[in-house]
Known about the structure:
Blueprint: H1 5-15, H2 19-33, H3 46-57, H4 67-78
Amino acid sequence: MATTLKQELINKISSTEDEDLLQLLKNDYDYFTGIGKPDVTDELSVEDLEELKNLLNEPFGHETESYEDFKKAIDKWRTK
Protein backbone atom coordinates (compact mmCIF):
# COMPACT_ATOMS: atom_id res chain seq x y z
CA MET A 1 0.00 0.00 0.00
CA ALA A 2 1.33 3.42 -0.92
CA THR A 3 2.37 5.72 1.90
CA THR A 4 0.46 8.99 1.98
CA LEU A 5 2.26 12.28 2.36
CA LYS A 6 0.72 12.68 5.80
CA GLN A 7 1.98 9.28 6.92
CA GLU A 8 5.42 9.96 5.44
CA LEU A 9 5.68 13.20 7.40
CA ILE A 10 4.49 11.51 10.59
CA ASN A 11 7.14 8.82 10.15
CA LYS A 12 9.90 11.36 9.57
CA ILE A 13 8.87 13.46 12.56
CA SER A 14 8.62 10.39 14.76
CA SER A 15 12.11 9.25 13.84
CA THR A 16 13.93 12.55 14.37
CA GLU A 17 15.72 13.47 17.59
CA ASP A 18 16.71 16.95 16.35
CA GLU A 19 14.96 19.34 18.75
CA ASP A 20 15.81 22.38 16.59
CA LEU A 21 14.19 20.78 13.57
CA LEU A 22 11.12 19.84 15.60
CA GLN A 23 10.82 23.40 16.92
CA LEU A 24 11.14 24.76 13.38
CA LEU A 25 8.42 22.42 12.16
CA LYS A 26 6.17 23.40 15.06
CA ASN A 27 6.71 27.10 14.39
CA ASP A 28 5.92 26.65 10.70
CA TYR A 29 2.85 24.58 11.48
CA ASP A 30 1.59 27.17 13.96
CA TYR A 31 2.26 30.00 11.51
CA PHE A 32 0.55 28.41 8.53
CA THR A 33 -2.45 27.18 10.50
CA GLY A 34 -2.87 30.42 12.44
CA ILE A 35 -2.50 28.69 15.80
CA GLY A 36 -1.23 31.06 18.45
CA LYS A 37 -1.14 34.05 16.09
CA PRO A 38 2.70 34.18 16.05
CA ASP A 39 4.34 37.56 15.88
CA VAL A 40 7.55 37.75 13.86
CA THR A 41 9.02 40.10 16.46
CA ASP A 42 8.58 37.66 19.36
CA GLU A 43 12.09 36.26 18.94
CA LEU A 44 13.84 39.63 18.66
CA SER A 45 15.94 40.89 21.54
CA VAL A 46 14.86 44.11 23.28
CA GLU A 47 17.70 45.95 21.52
CA ASP A 48 16.77 44.58 18.08
CA LEU A 49 13.10 45.41 18.62
CA GLU A 50 14.01 48.96 19.63
CA GLU A 51 16.24 49.32 16.55
CA LEU A 52 13.42 48.07 14.32
CA LYS A 53 10.99 50.59 15.83
CA ASN A 54 13.51 53.38 15.29
CA LEU A 55 14.06 52.35 11.67
CA LEU A 56 10.34 52.35 11.03
CA ASN A 57 10.04 55.88 12.41
CA GLU A 58 12.91 57.34 10.35
CA PRO A 59 11.97 59.56 7.45
CA PHE A 60 12.23 57.72 4.15
CA GLY A 61 15.34 58.45 2.12
CA HIS A 62 17.14 60.63 4.67
CA GLU A 63 20.41 58.79 3.98
CA THR A 64 20.02 58.80 0.20
CA GLU A 65 22.74 60.32 -1.96
CA SER A 66 22.00 62.22 -5.13
CA TYR A 67 23.02 60.69 -8.43
CA GLU A 68 25.48 63.54 -8.95
CA ASP A 69 27.21 62.84 -5.61
CA PHE A 70 27.33 59.15 -6.46
CA LYS A 71 28.92 59.88 -9.85
CA LYS A 72 31.55 62.14 -8.21
CA ALA A 73 32.43 59.40 -5.72
CA ILE A 74 32.87 56.67 -8.32
CA ASP A 75 34.73 58.98 -10.69
CA LYS A 76 37.45 59.22 -8.01
CA TRP A 77 37.88 55.43 -8.19
CA ARG A 78 38.31 55.53 -11.96
CA THR A 79 41.16 58.03 -12.00
CA LYS A 80 44.77 56.85 -11.95
